[in-house]
Amino acid sequence: MNIFKKSEIYKLNKTHLSLSLLLIASPWIILFITTNVIVRHSVFNSIPCWSDELSYWHEILSFSQKGLNFGYYTINESLPKYLSFGSHGFGAVSVYALFGKIFGWKTYSIVIANAFFMSFAFLFLTIAVKISSKSLLYILLFSFSYTPLILFSSTSMTELLNYSALIVYFSALYIYFKGGSRKMLISLLLFCTAISFIRIIYIVLFLPLLFKRKTEFQFDLKFLISIVLWIVFSALLFVLNNLFVSPYPDSFLNEWLSSKGFSEFVSNFAEHFSQNAWNMINPVSEDIIQVLSRYFIIFICLVCLVKSKAIQTRFKKIEIEYFIVFLILFLFLLINIAAYDVFDWRDYRVIAPVLFGSVLFLILNSKRFIIYFSLAANLLGILFLLISPQVLDSFNNGRYANPKGNKMLNHIVYTKFPNSRFTNTIVVHQFSSDVVLNIPAGIGITYSDTLTDKLNSKYIYSNNKLHLSTYNIIASNETGYLYQKRNY
């Protein structure tokens, strides 16, 4: 009998270990399937091709090779208060730059780094959390079938870094709610602070830490003070982050805060909010993949509100795990609608990682209904992906094309000790891989829709010949013209 029990334990441990290893390897398996099997290209032939990808890639190249001594990454030469980071901020760029410093930086490096970060996050999950084999299987199935993860796995976007951060966060949150120590609380506070510099909306993730193991909700003075401290600290993080982020003039926040008068301020906000809210529920506003994701998060949010029993019991007795997920998803939705955009994959990119983390948290807490619904929704997403191949094609268009060499850009010289960061900056009017991937490390790239003599950057690259009095042509070929400012 004892021998039988030992064999059963061995079998269980072997199954658990196999599932754990498979989960840790899953990012690489997904990457292999999406590249080698679906689009039939090696990941080592991939290049960043979207403007955001190219901007991330080159900024990381400069930071990893030149430290903080690189040119401006801006739009229309709108400068940050300090240093020269672009409109994406320094959080994500810093993480990838560390990876680049250790392993070097190639055109495919972000894709490889993303799989590495995801594997590390799943490793943390399997080691830190006491998790059943059944829950491991559910997480594995959910990961393999999550459409946003599949779509972005082969891109040079930073989405998978966000997934990784949220896997670690929700795993640690689960441990904390199951009886974590004060050290765990401090670690979570520090981790939330760090990832808020990757994406500022993660200030929302501080809130669940105020509800540890509470079954009865009390609006007392202690809770009020905690909320005020959270608001103040979040505001400080927002201000601190913005000191190192170059302005993004085309954003709603920039236009909204530039409103002339209170009535215009209110009118702009109301118009933006109502349009975003309509886009969120409009079934024909975008392709079916994005619409499905929006409905998915709204449904999970509403179900968690009902399951939390917060309204039914007037906050007297709540199911804390459901309430936490409702609170996070609701605030993410609200902030996205109020201050960001709901179109062209923008809301998809922000919401999909936190939805993934929320479902992971519910799986860890054995919330069966959410588990089964999420897996069914994922299968539906894959079905729509199969019948809508144009979505996958749009993600991979140009991603495996060899970038053309551009010897003209070899005339650009990086200055180690410049008088101004503009000395190491080039202005372009388009972000194409043939240009960006050939610009030397340390040369910041600023986009401008108007190329004039009023620019301060040392270099200008244009496809068309310009009539400028303060810039000279120093190189040209069939692709365009490279200009250098005379006073340099």
Automatic annotation (TrEMBL):
Keyword Membrane: yes
Superkingdom to which the source organism belongs: Bacteria
Entry keyword set: Membrane, Transmembrane, Transmembrane helix
Name of protein: Glycosyltransferase RgtA/B/C/D-like domain-containing protein
Membrane-spanning residues: 21-39, 82-99, 111-129, 135-153, 160-177, 183-211, 223-244, 288-308, 320-342, 348-364, 369-387
